[in-house]
Amino acid sequence: MKNRRHNADLITLLLGLFVILYAMSKIDTKKYAEVVAALGGVFGSSDATAMKLKIVEIDRNLPDIYGERRNIETQIRKALKLDEKSLPVTITEDERGVTVHLQEQLLFASGRSDLKSSSLETLDELAQALRKLSNDIRVEGHTDNVPIHTAEFPSNWHLSVRRALNVGYYLIEKHGINPEKVSVVGYSEYRPLLPNTSEENRARNRRVDIVVMAKTPLRSPTTMQNKSESINDVSQEK
């Protein structure tokens, strides 16, 4: 008799688990919450909050969020012909949007901020894609951690800002990109892609990033967790 009761309890628990998984697969937070509440008694609690399950808000527009970023990246890759050329350029996606990393060797001579004439073709191609987008654009200058002390650039701060400014100004003046959409910032050595432990890494860190800001930002896991904790706290107060 005990074995039969044990088997029945196990089947009930498994059934509850599959129902919850099915609800989650539909990415419908409201239905998920209802199922959890309904099955509270099965798992030994009449209150869903007592189950210590945090309901994380899942953005209903998740396909649109990633679709926007993918569309931006596709347009930029096509404009730069990255499938055909070998350029010191990489593209990444994150919570802000899509970032085009342009390495120093493409844009500048060492310790200089004036654009190489050989870099203009790439910037011209990139501008063709940027002009079609209504998104805001951030131009960010980065250096490695090797100090610079010259009459023109007393520090890496000065160098990173001037490099970003020259790239941003070229896009505005040469290609008519709306200056209201463009911001320029220098980060010096303080936002490296890689640890400055080798010449190869330092070369990767010397760059200008062009960030196409997504209109629908991604929520970070921390943000979603904090929101779910707030929801849980409100439920407990009720």
Query: What is the domain tally?
Result: 2
CATH architecture of the largest domain: 2-Layer Sandwich
By CATH, the superfamily of the largest domain comes out as OmpA-like domain
Shape: globular
What order do the strands of the largest sheet run in, or round the barrel if closed?
1-2-5-3-4
Strand portion, in percent?
A: 5-15%
The level of helicity is: 40-55%
Supply Rg: 26 Å
Q: Average pLDDT, to the nearest integer? A: 80
**Regions with pLDDT < 50 over 5+ consecutive residues?**
48-58, 220-238
Largest sheet: 5 strands, mixed
CATH topology of the largest domain: 60s Ribosomal Protein L30, Chain: A
Structural class: alpha+beta
Total E-strand runs? 5
Structure report:
The protein is globular and about 80 Å long. It starts with a helix and ends with a helix. The protein has helices at residues 2-25, 29-38, 62-80, 104-107, 120-131, 156-175, 199-205, 221-237, and strands at residues 89-93, 97-103, 137-142, 182-186, 207-213. Helices cover 47% and strands 13% of the residues. Residues 48-58 and 220-238 have low confidence and may be disordered. The chain has 238 residues and is of the alpha+beta class. α5 crosses α6 (156-175). α6 (156-175) links the parallel β3 (137-142) and β4. The chain has a 5-stranded mixed beta sheet. The protein has 8 helices and 5 strands. The chain folds into 2 domains: 2-59 and 221-237; 62-213, OmpA-like domain (60s Ribosomal Protein L30, Chain: A, 2-Layer Sandwich), CATH 3.30.1330.
